[in-house]
Design a protein that fits this description.
Elements lengths: L1 H5 L3 H16 L3 H18 L4 H10 L5 H18 L2 H11 L5 H16 L3 H18 L5 H8 L1 H6 L7 H6 L7 H7 L11 H21 L29 H7 L1 H21 L10 H16 L2 H11 L4 H18 L3 H12 L5 H13 L5 H18 L4 H12 L11 H7 L3 H27 L10
Length: about 475
């Protein structure tokens, strides 16, 4: 075995070593959330905050993210509904047939995961997971850990750089912004965030690096742990459609209702985009985005019974979000509901300058992302003092959001929170994928900080749009 490992390349050896470490030491995702609550509480006490108030604000904030939690759940549901349609499954089988070797399969799923996450991170997780299952069936010595970790790269590298970005969508939607934040920054349209050419170049570089690392770190057949080694059965075959026997079942099987309801939803969406005062992109918020996926899924499933089955299949993958989000909301409450937020604002304003702002904010956003892995809710915490500091240092506000987007995705590579839907499909544990995520993090972190700093110096400051 030692000789087999010695024959691997440097990155492949590193991946195997980190995978072995994470399988022994990596905790359950809920444990990470609980640790985050305790760590932030202790930090608050050390910063001079009253322990009783920290506990009160944490408990008070426990339900604060219920609307946002529902939006996140619907992203998972919508992504699964679309990915599980017949046309999507045919596409999965087609795409799974492209790679001819296990190593190229890992690189292929990495590329696919990152590109699709630019459109929808929910779709990326579900579709990439199903793609890995199909490729594992075709390529018997495909390393299931490396392929699963590659399927997660969309969440750890690119999701926030595209239309999935909660922060960019929130800042472009006046109705979704807290009034206090709007008074600081005003509306920041998508043309000044995810559609900046600097953002496109950054995204392209990160994708190229990630695919290369995924390819080079995938172990050879001798050291691979396949789906069979994990005891993972082949994906289930398509269910045989039952014939309707009663009037109630006729309605369940009739496409008429799906067509009519989807038609009404598309009519509404057309009106939203047509009447948007700030253009089509301004209408792309989380609610309209989720509604698009639900309407498309309803139409593509054709019969209500198929749509309902797809929704039911997606629900187990939402369990982690429903349970753990309130505990991350506790962390948010302890930070935003006490003096911690103001103290952080003072620190950023006092220690940053125009030339150092990008790196310091990037490092802070990545660090806080370990404890609050939700890009949207974490941005609500960070945005007031980060945007104040950006204005004081005359840093382009749209690029500040992209610095945040690129940096806050990094801890997702090792934070198991958003792995939960993928793990449900792959039938794996977070510790099985975390080692390869660590390897990607080590490579990606300096590149992200360098690009954020470099482009922050090239974009002129634009006053807030109010």
């Amino acid at each position: 075995m030692r000789q087999a490992k010695a024959s691997e390349g440097r990155l492949a050896r590193a991946g195997l070593a980190l995978a072995a470490w994470s399988e022994h030491w990596f905790p359950d995702p809920a444990v990470v959330a609980f640790l985050g609550v305790i760590v932030v509480f202790v930090l608050g006490v050390l910063a001079g905050e009253d322990p009783g108030r920290l506990a009160f604000e944490g408990g008070k904030g426990f339900w604060a993210l219920v609307p946002f939690t529902m939006q996140m759940v619907m992203i998972i549901v919508g992504g699964h509904v679309v990915a599980s349609t017949a046309i999507a499954r045919r596409a999965i089988r087609y795409l799974a047939g492209w790679p001819g070797t296990p190593r190229s399969a890992v690189a292929w799923v990495a590329l696919f995961s990152m590109l699709t996450s630019l459109i929808s991170w929910g779709l990326s997780l579900i579709f990439s997971g199903l793609l890995v299952r199909e490729m594992a069936r075709r390529l018997t010595r495909l390393d299931y850990r490396a392929a699963g970790a590659a399927a997660y790269l969309g969440l750890g590298v690119t999701w926030a750089m595209g239309l999935s970005s909660s922060a960019a969508m929130l800042m472009a939607t006046r109705a979704a912004m807290p009034a206090s934040l709007f008074e600081i920054s005003g509306v920041v349209p998508l043309s000044q965030t995810i559609f900046l050419w600097q953002s496109a170049v950054t995204t392209a570089i990160l994708i190229a690096v990630s695919v290369s690392v995924a390819y080079l770190s995938a172990p050879s057949a001798a050291n691979a742990r396949s789906a069979e080694d994990f005891g993972i059965p082949d994906p289930p075959s398509a269910k045989v459609e039952e014939r309707a026997a009663t009037p109630g079942e006729w309605l369940e099987h009739s496409p008429a209702l799906s067509i009519l309801v989807a038609g009404l939803l598309f009519t509404y969406l057309a009106q939203v985009f047509r009447t948007s005062s700030n253009g089509l992109l301004a209408a792309l918020n989380l609610n309209t985005y989720n509604l698009i996926f639900i309407a498309v899924g309803l139409l593509l499933h054709w019969r209500p019974i198929r749509f309902l089955r797809a929704v039911a299949e997606s629900i187990p993958a939402t369990g982690g979000v429903l349970l753990q989000f309130p505990f991350y909301a506790m962390i948010l409450g302890m930070i935003a509901g006490t003096g911690l937020s103001e103290k952080l604002a003072h620190v950023f304003t006092s220690v940053t300058s125009h030339s150092t702002f990008a790196v310091l904010v990037g490092a802070y956003s990545a660090g806080l992302g370990v404890f609050i892995p939700s890009g949207g809710s974490k941005w609500v915490v960070e945005a007031p003092y980060v945007m104040q500091a950006a204005i004081a240092n005359r840093v382009h506000l749209g690029w500040v959001i992209q610095i945040y987007n690129a940096s806050e995705a990094l801890p997702n590579l090792i934070n198991p929170f958003w792995m939960l839907p993928l793990l449900g499909i792959l039938k794996l544990r977070a510790r099985d994928l975390a080692g390869y995520g660590m390897l990607q993090l080590v490579v990606q972190l300096p590149i992200v900080f360098l690009l954020c700093w470099l482009f922050s110096l090239s974009i002129p400051f634009v006053p807030p749009m109010k």
